[in-house]
């Protein structure tokens, strides 16, 4: 590694640690209540380290939105690819196929209590800030495309028929998942319990979009 690459690598590690700390702090207390000092303390850095990477708390927040978006989309796409390679589309049959496989991809996002809190915090500020709204809507659309791709693969493999356009089904399922994740968080659930309960809630909804086979 060259001498020039060492400071660059160190700077990137510092930036990632600040983002890790910010993700926890913003989820716990919100953007408005969070302070630069609190983020720095959680990350183990000084204010100088913070301002050498970000101009403001708001810039840090936007960078965090971008990172969370990228991580969730990458996770969903990787899981989708692994399902295709493993042949699970063929092994999973019946009307429950769409529900089970969509749930697996949503589970792959790793949603937990802090993740739900952070998403809600992002939404609140996206309502007030056009720049943030554009980033959030782009994330939402990309996630919807990933879920739609999964549903389309399952429907074609299982020779099923949907009662609504593919994108509408994907958007409805994704919206229901997010809503149930918020509800489960309010009930005090987290981790696997949160994902399990949310998945069970959307199972019945997903089945409504499958046209029963003709007899």
Structure description:
This is AcrR family transcriptional regulator. GO terms for molecular function: DNA-binding transcription factor activity; transcription cis-regulatory region binding. Pfam families: TetR_N. Keywords: DNA-binding, Transcription, Transcription regulation. α4 packs across α6. The chain starts with a helix and ends in an 8-residue tail after the last helix. The longest helix has 30 residues. By secondary structure, the chain is mainly α. 76% of the residues lie in helices and 0% in strands. The protein is built from ten helices and no strands.
Give the percentage of residues in beta strands. Answer: under 5%
Q: Would you list the SSEs in sequence order as H and E?
A: HHHHHHHHHH
And the CATH topology of the largest domain? Tetracycline Repressor, domain 2
- Which CATH class of the largest domain applies here? Mainly Alpha
Q: What count of domains describes the coordinates?
A: 2
The end-to-end distance, rounded to whole angstroms, is: 67 Å
- Proportion of helical residues: over 70%
Number of helices: 10
Domain HTH tetR-type: 12-72
Protein name: AcrR family transcriptional regulator
Pfam family, one: TetR_N
GO molecular function, one term: transcription cis-regulatory region binding
SSE order and pairing:
Elements: H1 5-29, H2 36-43, H3 47-51, H4 57-86, H5 88-91, H6 96-107, H7 113-126, H8 130-157, H9 166-186, H10 191-207
Helix pairs in contact: 1-2, 1-4, 1-7, 4-6, 4-8, 6-8, 6-10, 7-8, 7-9, 8-9, 9-10
